Amino acid sequence: MFTTHFKMTTQPFLENTPAQHILKDERITEGLARLHYLASHGTLALLTGCTGVGKSSLIKLLLSSLSGNRFQPAYVYLTHVGGNGLLKLIVSALGEAPRHSKDRLFLQILEKTQQTESTTLLVLDEAHLIGPQSLTDLRLLLSSLAEDRPPLKMVLSGQESLRDQLKRSCHAALVHRISVRYHIPPMSFEQTAAYIDHHMRAAGAGPKIFEPEAKALIHDYAGGLPRQVNNIAIACLINAAAANVQTISQALVNQTMAEFQLP
User: Fold this and answer.
1) Which of 66, 128, 139, 171 could pair with 158 as two cysteines, CB 3.0-4.6 Å apart?
2) Closest C-alpha to 149, from 119, 173, 176, 174
3) 11-26 burial, b for 16+ CB within 10 Å, e for fewer?
4) Looking at the structure, do residues 217 and 205 belong to the same domain, yes or no?
5) Which residues are registered as beta bridge partners of 154?
C-alpha cells in the first residue's frame, strides 16, 4: 500500500473529503460567500460547473457551516426521477412519509416548512437532470412561499447544461427568482499545486513528494478539475510505491498517464 511506502497516516485525495479538510481556495471562498448571502437574504441559488470541479465540496462546506438553530438542511440528489418523484424525495428529505397525489405532496412540503421555526434550505444536486415539469413544480413551491422571510430556500446545483435548460422561455419565472448565481471554474496551476500539497500534508506526508514539474503536468492532464487531480495523484502514488521511489517526477506522471487514460 502506498500509504505505508510514504509513511502516511491516512489516505490522501479521498473522493468524500470531510468538510474540515476541504481546501478553501479562491474559487471555493467566493462561492461560499455567495451561498451564505442566499442563506441570509436570498431565496434561490444557481450553482453550476463541469463534473468534478468541486460543486459537492462547496455544498458540503455550506451545509456544515449552517447554524442548526436557524436552518434545517435537506439534500436531494436523485433528481432524474419523473412525475411526482422529485416532490416525494423532497418530502422524504424533510423527514416525512410522502403522500400520494401531487396536490397533497405540495401541501405536505408547505406545511412542513411553515410549521418549523427554522428556515429549510433545500439543496437539489445533479439539477441538470431535473425535467421541465419538475422545474415548474419547484417554481410553484417558491411562489407559494412568498413572504418577508421565506421558510424555504433552494440551491440548484448542476452541470453547465443546467444553464441552457433555464434559458427556455417556459422557465423565465423560475430564473427571475434566482438571487445568487455562481459558476465554479477549474483550478489554476497555482491552485492545483496548493491542492496537492494540502492533501499530502493532511495525510501526514511532505509536499515535496510531488516535484513542481510533476504538479504542473498533473494540472495539465486533469484540466484543473479536482476529481481528476485526485485520480491521477493516487495512480502516481501507487506507481511510485511499486517502483520503490520516494518522489513523483514528471517522467513518472507521463508513465502513469500512458496506462491511465482519462475519458
Assistant:
1) 128
2) 119
3) ebbeeebeeeebbebe
4) yes
5) 44, 122
Taking only the tens place, the pLDDT of each residue in 1-37 is 899 999 999 999 988 888 888 999 999 999 999 999 9
Query: What are the grid coordinates assigned to 135, written together?
Result: 422545474
Please check whether residues 191 and 177 belong to one and the same domain. Answer: no
Which grid coordinates belong to 183? 459558476
Give the integer Cα–Cα distance in Å for 228 and 231: 5
For position 115, which CATH number holds? 3.40.50.300
**Residue 26 pairs with which residues in a beta bridge?**
none
User: Of 213, 245, 209, 215, nearest to 232 (Cα)?
Assistant: 215
The candidate with the shortest Cα–Cα distance to 123, out of 51, 181, 56, is 56
SS3 162: helix
| Lateral strand order in the sheet of 178-183 | 71-76, 119-124, 152-158, 44-48, 178-183
pTM confidence score = 0.91
Other residues' Cβ atoms within 10 Å of the Cβ of residue 251? 12
- 17 found inside a domain: no
Residues 51 and 174 placed together within one structural domain of the fold: yes
74 and 193 co-located in one domain: no
Find the domain containing 234 and state its range.
187-259
Q: Domain count for the chain, please give it.
A: 2
Q: What is the pLDDT of residues 201-218, one digit of tens each?
A: 999 997 789 999 999 999
Question: What would you report as the CA-atom Rg of the chain, rounded to the nearest whole angstrom?
Answer: 21
Question: Mind listing the pLDDT tens digit for each residue in 144-167?
Answer: 765 555 688 999 999 999 999 999
